[in-house]
Amino acid sequence: MIDFYKMNKDIIYVIGIHILMPIAYCFIFISTLIVPLLLFLNEFSQDIENPLGLNIKTFVFIFFCIFIMFLFILRICILPCVYGYFEKKSNNIRLKNFIHNLKYNYLYRLLILIIIEIPFLILVLRANTVHYPPYLERIELHALLTCTCDLLGCYLVLFLWWDIQKFIKKIKNKT
Predict the structure, then answer these.
(1) What is the dihedral of CA 119, 124, 126, 132, to 10 degrees?
(2) Looking at the predicted structure, is the pLDDT value of residue 154 above 80?
(3) What mean pLDDT is predicted for residues 64-74?
(4) CB within 8 A of 94, min separation 6: which ones?
(5) Among 12, 98, 134, 140, which residue carries the largest CB count within 10 Å?
C-alpha cells in the first residue's frame, strides 16, 4: 500500500484538488447566504463603533465580500498552478502524459470538457422524466451544477492560460 502511494502520490494529489474545488465553490455559495443572515442578526445588536469608524455590520459585510472574492479567485487559479507544478516536478509518467495531452491536443481538451458535463446532462434528463419533490430536485440539481460548472470553469481558465502562454511565446519568438 505504501509503495502504491509513493508511485501515485502526484495523481492522488491532483484528484484530491479536483475534489476540493467543488467544496470550495459550495463554501462560497454558503458564505453568500451567511452574509445576509449575519447582517439581519446584527440589526438587533448594538451598533458598536470600532476605531476605524466602521460599524460591525459594515466590517462583517466587507470581510465576507473579500473572503468570497479570495476563494473565487483561488478556486479558478488553482488548476494552472497545480498542473504547471506537476508538469515540471512530477515523476509520474501517466500524469505528465495527461497534462501534455491536455495542453497540446484540442480533441483531448474537448473530450475532458464533455466528460465533465456528462453527469450534469444525465441528472437534467433524469429530473425531467422522474418526478421528485421540488426541493429535492433543486438541491440535487444545484449540487451537481455546482460541481460540474466549477470544474468546467476551472478547466476553461486552465486552457485559456495555456493558450495565452503559447501566444506570448509565439510573439517573443518573432521579435
Answers:
(1) 120
(2) yes
(3) 77
(4) 11
(5) 98
